[in-house]
Structure formats: C-alpha cells, structure tokens
Amino acid sequence: MSTLTRTLLVPLIAFCFAGLFTTSAVQAQSVDVGATLASRYVWRGTDFGDAAAIQPTIEFSQGGFTIGAWGSFDMSPVSGDGVNENDLYASYAFDTDFGSFSVFVTDFYFSENDTNDFFDYDNPGEHVIEPGISYSGPVSLHASINAYGRDDANEIWLEASYPFSVEDVDLSLAVGGSPNDDAADNYYGTDADTDAGITKLSLSASKSIEITDEFSLPISASYYLNPYTPRSYFVFGISL
C-alpha cells in the first residue's frame, strides 16, 4: 500500500468510526451491550491465549447500519500469551430476493503490551484493517481480505457454513481457509510448505436455557479442528 493511500485511509477510517459512534449513540434504534465468558478464544482455527477469556461487546444499530466494539481478554494470570484484543467494526446489511448481504470493515487491534500505540497505524500487526462481504441464506458465505496492516501480505479469508436446527438447538457446520496465507509467519496456521489451506472445520451449537419467565441464559459449544496445527478445540461459552 502506498504512502499516499495510507495517509488517506487511516484518517478516513478514524473519522468514519468516530462519526458513526457519535450519531448512532444519539439516534440508534437499538443498542446491545453484553459479554461472553468463553473457555477458550479460538479464531478461524487458531487458539489465542491458551486460556479462558471474557469477551465484551457493545453495538449500535440503525436500519441496516451497525457499528460496534468487541474484545477478548485473557483471564489467566499465568498465560504466556496474554491476549488483549479490542476491535472496532462497521457494517451495512440489506435484504434481497436471494437472501441477506452485508458489507463490513473490521479494525483488529492488539494491545497486549505497552508499546502498542492505538494511533500508530504504521506499525505492522498492531492494527489490521479487514473489509469484506457476507451472505446469509440457505447457506452462509464470508469473504474478507487483510487490506492494511500486514506488510501488504493481503491474506484472504473464505468461509462457508450451513445453519440448521434440531428441536430447540441451533447448529452450524462451517469450513474456512485462505488461498494465499502468508506461511512465513503462520498467520492462519498453514505450514511452511504451502500458502493455502483449510484451517477451520467446526460444528457449533447454541440454545437458551430458560431461568425465569423473563430471563433466559444463552449457552454455546463449538468443536474446532485445524488440519494444519494439527489441533482440535472444544469451546464452551455463556453469554449475558
């Protein structure tokens, strides 16, 4: 990415997020605040932190527009990785006769040490800007690219999932991978001999347990398999 592009892109993204948060906070049709207690943080087939995590979220929606913040914080004081991630995202969703589409952009930010300056977008890896598009219908499809923050590696992530239900349990089978993973630093978990591969095979289940007539507790469980690590994970979560 050229210096001129970076010069234009970074202030534009910052302005959009600031403007969206300001206007949506006042005019939002809906506001959602919550957190998930997860037994592990597994993202696209990769384990982050090797420990339980608390994952808070705040989200504003108006019409088809949504903006929000999401984070994951390692709860183990003895974990060697000390994952401290907090992301900003914005999306616009629209319905068609063929299903629902969404265009989005996510700013992944990792602040696990004191040297990670939030406003420093020139340090590769501190911020990764990922735009993409998703489709939801009989199947769900996702395509995104690391457009900034990865030394122009521009890894693409592709994922497909099939949602279905059995009685009162919502389930989803998913497969995901990258056709151009930067195997030099193992970004998506592929080995050094390839720059493409499927790194996520998963089965997820979720349901709500009725506690009272007015309160239900959402719980989830996901089984992940990464053929390249090779490791599997079984993650349990409780959302509030």
Notable features of this structure?
240 residues; mainly beta; Porin; 12-stranded antiparallel barrel; 10% helix; disordered N terminus
Task: Characterise this structure.
The chain has one domain: monomeric porin ompg (Porin, Beta Barrel). A hairpin with a 5-residue loop joins strand 12 (197-210) and strand 13. It has one helix at residues 3-27, and strands at 30-38, 41-43, 46-48, 53-62, 65-74, 84-96, 99-109, 127-136, 140-145, 156-166, 169-178, 197-210, 216-226, 231-239. It is mainly β.
Largest sheet: 12 strands, antiparallel, barrel
Provide the CATH architecture.
Beta Barrel
What is the class in the CATH system?
A: Mainly Beta
Q: What is the chain-wise order of helices and strands?
A: HEEEEEEEEEEEEEE
Number of helices: 1
Query: Tell me, what's the shape?
Result: globular
Q: Beta-strand level of the residues, as a percent range? A: over 45%
* Average residue pLDDT: 84
Helical/strand content category: mainly beta
- Identify low-pLDDT runs: 1-5
In what order do the strands lie side by side in the largest sheet? 1-4-5-6-7-8-9-10-11-12-13-14
Count of distinct structural domains: 1
| Spatial separation of the terminal alpha carbons | 40 Å
Q: How many strand units?
A: 14
| CATH topology value | Porin
User: Radius of gyration in whole Å, from Cα?
Assistant: 18 Å
User: Going by CATH, what is the homologous superfamily?
Assistant: monomeric porin ompg
